[in-house]
Write a structure and sequence with these properties.
This protein is about 10% helix and about 35% strand. The chain is mainly beta. An eight-stranded antiparallel β-sheet has the order 14-15-16-17-23-22-21-20, with no helix packed on it. The protein has a five-stranded mixed β-sheet with strand order 3-2-1-5-6, covered by helices on one side. The chain has a five-stranded antiparallel β-sheet with strand order 4-10-9-8-7, with no helix packed on it. The N and C termini lie far apart (about 55 Å).
Length: about 400
């Protein structure tokens, strides 16, 4: 059995690892993979708001180093009172037929041993007073760790400083555009634990960086730092959709990507000029072939919507926009999509099926079968113009 320490409002774990509220899912999965010999038969159910223990028979639980649940200690109401002290009266939920006992950042759900006692705890019994008293012998069925005073009002917390691990994350990313289409990215970045001294982890740093089409490889490295991976393209699978003279021209050298996984961004460089020619923004939705490789890119993309008159207006597309709503905003039909089927090898099957790629305003939207956007690819102008400076950015 796993022996775990409960920390209200923060985490569940031990000396080797810890599941923390606000932790990126990729880090939680990495913990499971690393300890696969101890943690077996895994089924992942993801919640960004709470950590739930729904089967207390599989784990040992302790608070401040003292066990309140183990093979020898039953998690009864008396044991919870002894371990956690006095609290507000329990709340009986007749629909669930459970008592809920709430602490700050921690909640227990109790189940009655005898179904014959349930009528005693209905709110209309004994002027409602009986429903406030959790009966003796009731045992914990579920435990929740969350942020704040109430499980009902809890919200997803910010990523804790301990989860940065020296990485840089993007709070959000604005897609910059000129008159014809995207011109670059403005990234609002977060980092912690990178400074000198003992108190380096006690402070989060917020800063802004911009990268543009036409920036050199050295420009991007000095702006964003080293990528997590560098990937060289072996072939261009979209070449068949280009004009016919270019389909059979072999590549003398390969373009390459900088993969910034914690930013949710890939940057493609031209193999000859070593300048930026493409950005790829990933949404990291479950059910996509690349799920859990990238942190979600919280992008904001301005789309130019042409109205009935000569004037046009701008609407914003985000990582949570549905493709149907984007097509409705455009007010005109989009061309038929290119079907994209990913697989790691010719004999391998993709369990998530194909996605559909729609071209729009120098952008390609990769759309999943559930209508969510999987990624957005941004292209620069055909002939690079003068580089947009920071002073020219829209405020």
């Amino acid at each position: 059995m796993l022996d775990l320490e409960v920390v209200p409002e923060r985490s569940l774990g031990n000396e080797q690892w810890e599941f923390t509220l606000g932790m990126p899912l990729a880090q939680a999965v990495a913990i499971l993979q690393k300890h696969c010999r101890i943690i077996k038969n895994i089924q992942v159910l993801y919640s960004e708001q709470v950590i739930e223990v729904y089967d207390l028979t599989k784990v040992k639980l302790k608070y401040c180093g003292v066990h309140f649940n183990s093979q020898a200690i039953a998690p009864t109401i008396e044991q919870i009172d002894q371990s956690f002290g006095a609290t507000h009266p329990g709340v009986y939920n007749s629909a669930e037929q459970l008592f809920h006992l709430n602490f700050r950042g921690l909640s227990f759900s109790f189940q009655l041993d005898s179904w014959t006692e349930i009528p005693k705890y209905e709110p209309n019994f004994a002027h409602g007073l009986a429903s406030l008293q959790i009966p003796h012998g009731a045992t914990v069925k579920r435990m929740y760790i969350y942020s704040g005073n109430s499980l009902q009002d809890t919200k997803a917390p910010l990523m804790p400083l301990s989860c940065f691990l020296g990485n840089v994350y993007a709070e959000n990313i604005d897609v910059l555009r000129d008159g014809t289409g995207p011109s670059g990215l403005r990234l609002h970045l977060l980092t912690a634990g990178c400074g000198p001294g003992v108190l380096a982890d006690a402070k989060m740093r917020v800063f802004e960086r911009c990268v543009y089409f036409g920036d050199s490889c050295q420009d991007v490295l000095s702006t964003l730092g080293s990528p997590h991976k560098v990937f060289y393209k072996s072939e261009d699978k979209m070449k068949i959709h280009s004009p016919s003279p270019h389909k059979q021209v072999p590549s003398k050298c390969n373009d390459y990507f900088f993969n910034y996984c914690t930013l949710g961004v890939d940057i493609l460089f031209d193999a000859n000029t070593h300048k930026v020619k493409k950005f790829v923004l990933h949404t990291n939705y479950p059910g996509h072939y690349n799920f859990n490789i990238y942190h979600r890119c919280e992008f904001k993309i301005p789309l130019v919507i042409k109205g009935d008159s000569a004037d046009s207006q701008t609407e914003t597309c985000t990582a949570y926009s549905k493709w149907d709503s984007i097509q409705d905003l455009l007010g005109h039909p989009v061309e038929k999509p290119v079907v994209l089927h990913r697989s790691s090898s010719p004999n391998n099957t993709n369990p998530f099926g194909s996605t559909f790629c729609f071209g729009l305003q120098r952008m390609i939207f990769e759309v999943m079968q559930n209508n969510h956007i999987a990624s957005v690819t941004l292209y620069g102008p055909a002939q690079p113009s003068s580089q947009l400076r920071t002073s020219d950015l829209p405020q």
